[in-house]
Design goal:
Aspartate Aminotransferase, domain 2; alpha/beta
């Protein structure tokens, strides 16, 4: 290192060394610590000095103080036994790339001033389209998460269906616009509902769904036929948040396109099934849609935050989301990164995606997806072997909904598990029943993690009482 290089690095050295030490401690202890935080928000606020001091402090000491303050309030979301939400873990290459993204400090808005990160994101986007079997010339934007990705896609859809009726929402707004309908199945995810509200579409008109949450195609066809005067957007889903079920894309997309509707697919975690030869059948026909949203920080296991918005017509995406000003680089033939997401300024969140895909390769991504689904199936098999418990959903992908005999017992089991700390699974209600929902999304959820999870559930069911003493009906621990 030259003297000049040393001078440039010196202000960061103490802080980065401290951060590295605390990150190493966290990662080496995470998998064996109780998953739950040791204190709540009030306890955390009590630990933080609320007075903003007049004088500053040494950077390394601030990082040390931060780690000391935060640790009791951290939840081990990266644990292979965290099933509470579809969170995912983080692959080492993606974590390393994310650290570099912070150090590089590039505003990934334009291809001109930040060509390195823009190029990496463009390659990552092309790889995603290839892996997911989506049209190769689609526009790909890296947003904060599924909510923002759904929003980007629905804004694009909104403007496109209005243009089809001769109206330009980019100049006229929505007050005088033709009427738009947003149709969805009754199991539509809240992120689509939120995105629709933000896009000015209002709450979706639900057309029904089957027991597993798959959209009622006949109900969709009826809804489309009964109101032909409105511009229409249809929202489908790849992976129901409770059951993991996938809509019938072939039939639903055909019906929607026959009626002239735009079709958007919310595939926050489920769209990744298309990357697995073994599970690709679940997403059959999904490539026929007009837009798709997914999360790389879910199934792909890159650090937060990294949603992905994909639109078949890249020009339409840029027309709706692009920003233009005299001080910005001139419009080029290829849209800039800020033409594909709602943000003008953002970190290079697509770079960890590139790193994860480079480290895994095509076979590794398929293996990751298969491993998550396999762990979910193993959990379901183990749960079914426990007296007094039942699995309520058809386990087709990565979601398992577990219930005891009564709602009270089910809710008590969920509370016990979260308090005990070996396992963290969320409580919910589905099809009129309380459930403990296990969402498998961490690449580290292996056979040992499954074994420990089943053991914790058995102990929890016994501890909450009111159940038959949980035991394996076949008298042996699951493999």
């Amino acid at each position: 290192m030259t003297e000049g290089e040393r001078d440039g690095y010196a202000p960061f050295e103490g802080a980065l060394d401290a951060a590295h030490a605390h990150a190493r401690h966290w990662l080496t202890t995470r998998d064996e610590r109780p998953i739950r935080p040791d204190t709540d928000i009030d306890g955390m606020l009590a630990r933080i000095d609320r007075t903003l001091a007049d004088a500053g402090r040494d950077a390394a000491s601030v990082v040390d103080e931060l780690a000391e303050i935060a640790e009791p309030g951290l939840i081990a979301m990266g644990s292979p036994r965290f099933y509470g939400f579809v969170i995912g873990g983080a692959y080492p290459a993606a974590v390393g790339a994310d650290w570099l993204v912070s150090a590089w400090d590039q505003n990934t808005g334009s291809r001109q001033p930040t060509p390195a990160v823009a190029a990496l994101e463009e390659v990552a986007g092309a790889w995603l389209l290839d892996l997911l079997g989506l049209p190769e010339r689609s526009g790909v934007g890296f947003a904060t998460g599924a909510s923002a990705a759904n929003f980007a896609c629905l804004v694009t859809a909104r403007d496109a269906v209005l243009r089809d009726r001769g109206y330009d929402a980019s100049t006229g707004g929505l007050q005088q616009a033709p009427r738009i309908r947003l149709l969805a199945g009754s199991a539509v995810h809240t992120s689509v509902v939120l995105a629709g509200r933000l896009a000015g579409l209002g709450a979706p008109e639900v057309v029904g769904a089957d027991r597993e949450g798959r959209i009622d195609v006949a109900g969709l066809e009826h809804a489309l036929a009964t109101d032909t005067g409105a511009a229409t957007i249809v929202a489908l889903q790849a992976g129901d948040v409770h059951s993991g079920a996938f809509d019938d894309f072939v039939s639903a997309i055909a019906v929607a396109h026959e009626a002239g509707a735009w079709v958007h697919v919310d595939g926050a975690f489920g769209l990744w099934a298309a990357a697995s030869p073994r599970l690709r059948h679940l997403a059959e026909g999904v490539d026929g849609a007009d837009s798709w949203a997914t999360d790389a920080h879910k199934t792909l296991n890159v650090p937060y935050d990294c949603g992905v918005a994909i639109v078949r017509d890249e020009a339409a995406m840029a027309a709706s989301l692009g920003a233009h000003a005299a001080y910005l680089p001139a419009v080029a033939a290829v849209p800039d990164p800020y033409d594909r997401v709602p943000e003008l300024s953002r970190r290079a969140r697509g770079v960890p995606v590139w790193a994860a895909l480079r480290a895994l390769g095509r076979d590794g991504v398929a293996g990751l997806v298969d491993g998550l689904a396999g762990a979910a199936s193993a959990l379901a098999d183990g749960f079914r072997a426990l007296d007094g418990l039942e699995v309520l959903n058809d386990v087709v992908f990565t979601q398992v909904c577990l219930a005891a005999s009564t709602d009270e017992q089910t809710l008590a089991l969920g509370e016990w598990l979260r308090d005990e700390g070996t396992v963290w699974a969320s409580s919910s209600h589905w099809n009129g029943r309380a459930v403990v929902r296990f969402a498998v999304s961490n690449h580290g959820t292996d056979a040992e993690a499954v074994r420990r999870t089943l053991d914790a559930v058995a102990r929890g069911a016994a501890a909450v009482g009111g159940l038959d003493t949980p035991r394996l009906r076949r008298g042996a621990a699951p493999e």
